[in-house]
Amino acid sequence: MNQQRRKNLCVVVPCLAFIAFMVGVVAYSPTLYRLFCAATGFGGTTQRALAGTDTVSDRTVTVQFDSNVAPDLPWRFEPAQREVSVRLGEQKLVFFTAENLSDKAIVGHATFNVTPDTAGIYFNKIQCFCFDDERLEAHEKVDMPVVFFVDPALAGNAETAGIHTITLSYTFFRSTNSDKAKDLSRFVATSAPDARRGRELFAQQCAGCHDVDANKAGPMLGGVVGRKAGSAPGYNYSAALRSAALTWSADTLDRWLADPREFVADMKMPVPVLDASARRDIIAYLEMESVRSSDHAGNRSVAETSPDQHQKE
């Protein structure tokens, strides 16, 4: 009897394990599919990049834009431009306009892909409203930025070398994930600077080269507001920045981030921040960090002052 029971268990246990495995695969298949598409560009899935590339080719492609809205979402959604010409490796800023036609705030989420499908692995988005669930207030209208580049490797692949036109398509659907939704009003020009969003953007777009408290590939940026250009201790600046007669302020930082090479010729930093709202919030974060750095330096100075000096004062 015990021998028969053991035989039954040898059959039942593997079957139960197989069933549990299949249930897990089914439960996580959407996530696994998304990860697969993101890694391979399957189905025209675009890539997400933290920054641009240093390599810009003379080869150009035309990027066209397509927009769609699900039937149950009362939004108007369309590209501000129907197409742009872009060099491979060049960062490009484009806009899509969204307008809520209803009398209440609604959260939407955009799906996306490019055609031809084989271009997906080479199409990189640095900034896009499609990364998050987005809330649009009643009758609100906003211009939403998308910053992208097409990898120069597109021209080196036999399957994609002949591609001269890429279509980027979005479809907005209604979302029920209102708790984590972001407000599209952040893109309105009159919005107040948001240092918290700036911290997130800094982590996404700047932290690969910069830290606020230490030099990395780029100089430390703690205390940058009010500091003379090229003066962070311990960093090997280019001659162009060391000799630049400028002090970092909100205005000069904005001009620098918009187009570093145009603002200071022959400098090292090759990557701009094209979207004005992103620059505004990154600068707000750097201003906050500059105040923190100043307070920290002041407290350290007080702590290092001897008791005798305090008495003399």
Short précis:
This protein has 313 residues and is α/β, with parallel strands linked by helices.
Report on this model:
By secondary structure, the protein is of the alpha/beta class. It folds into two domains: 137 residues, Ctag/Cox11 (Pfam 04442) (Sandwich), CATH 2.60.370.10; 106 residues, Cytochrome c-like domain (Cytochrome Bc1 Complex, Chain D, domain 2). The protein is built from seven helices and eleven strands. Strands 4-2-10-6-8-11 form a six-stranded mixed beta sheet, with no helix packed on it. It has a five-stranded mixed beta sheet with strand order 1-7-9-5-3, with no helix packed on it. Helix 2 packs across helix 6 and helix 4 crosses helix 6. The longest helix has 39 residues. The protein is globular, with a radius of gyration of 26 Å. The C terminus is likely disordered.
CATH homology superfamily of the largest domain: Ctag/Cox11
The succession of helices and strands, N to C, reads HEEEEEEEEEEEHHHHHH
**CATH first level of the largest domain:** Mainly Beta
According to CATH, what is the topology of the largest domain?
A: Ctag/Cox11 (Pfam 04442)
Radius of gyration: 26 Å
Strand content: 15-25%
Termini gap: 95 Å
Features:
2 domains, six-stranded mixed beta sheet, 11 strands, alpha/beta, single chain, five-stranded mixed beta sheet, disordered C terminus, 313 residues, 23% strand, Cytochrome Bc1 Complex, Chain D, domain 2, Ctag/Cox11 (Pfam 04442), 33% helix
Blueprint of the fold:
Layout lengths: L1 H39 L6 E2 L11 E10 L5 E5 L3 E5 L4 E9 L5 E10 L7 E5 L6 E3 L4 E10 L14 E10 L7 E2 L11 H12 L32 H4 L7 H9 L1 H4 L12 H29 L2 H6 L1
Parallel strand pairs: 1-7, 2-10, 8-11
Antiparallel strand pairs: 2-4, 3-5, 5-9, 6-8, 6-10, 7-9
